[in-house]
């Protein structure tokens, strides 16, 4: 029983590590935002240059990552109290994600070391095999109704409606359109699926080599 629990939590730590690592990579995927700017013609829509928009975007990323920045100030966009509070909540979620990434990374390291010592890679085959289907289901839901999924996502993470920005009081939403977040979700699902397939292939190869 103790051994089963150890392997259950060890496997769980691997998946938490993959998920939080993918979230971190998506957050820091600046090229994806640049692509969105050009593909969605955002500079033309808001009447700003790409460099000017990127300056504001980098300011948002710095606020969300640096603990010593307790106030979000952008060069070209004002904020309502509600909008500023939402970014504060996002900042806290980022810290939670990075904390889980660190802790699950440690747990994953020790669990995989145990797997290697016991040459028990076979234990990872079925979990990865099952996990491979999850991103496909989520991508299917995403393709059917992203708007509904976007709302549900925010309702799960936030217990208020501060995320519903009004363009007149929080014009920063004009450079962070919903389509950009759809690209982020898609990018994250692709990374997760690649990780699951890679984990399945590697564990199977190790188990039968």
Number of helices: 9
Could you estimate the helical fraction of the residues in percent? Answer: over 70%
Tell me the series of helices and strands, N- to C-terminal.
HHHHHHHHH
Uncertain runs: none
Instruction: Report the principal-axis shape.
Output: elongated
Termini distance? Answer: 28 Å
The percent range for strand residues is under 5%
The protein's oligomeric status is single chain
Give the helix/strand class: mainly alpha
Rg value: 20 Å
pLDDT averaged residue by residue: 92
Q: What can be said about the biggest beta sheet?
A: none
- Using DSSP, what is the number of strands? 0
Key features of this structure:
0% strand, mainly alpha, elongated, 209 residues
List the helices and strands and how they pair.
Layout: H1 2-27, H2 30-39, H3 42-46, H4 50-65, H5 81-118, H6 122-131, H7 133-144, H8 146-157, H9 178-207
Helix pairs in contact: 1-5, 1-9, 6-9, 7-9
Structure explained in plain terms:
Helix 1 crosses helix 5, helix 1 packs across helix 9 (178-207) and helix 6 packs antiparallel against helix 9 (178-207). The chain is mainly α and 209 residues long. The chain has helices at residues 2-27, 30-39, 42-46, 50-65, 81-118, 122-131, 133-144, 146-157, 178-207. The mean pLDDT is 92. The chain contains nine helices and no strands.
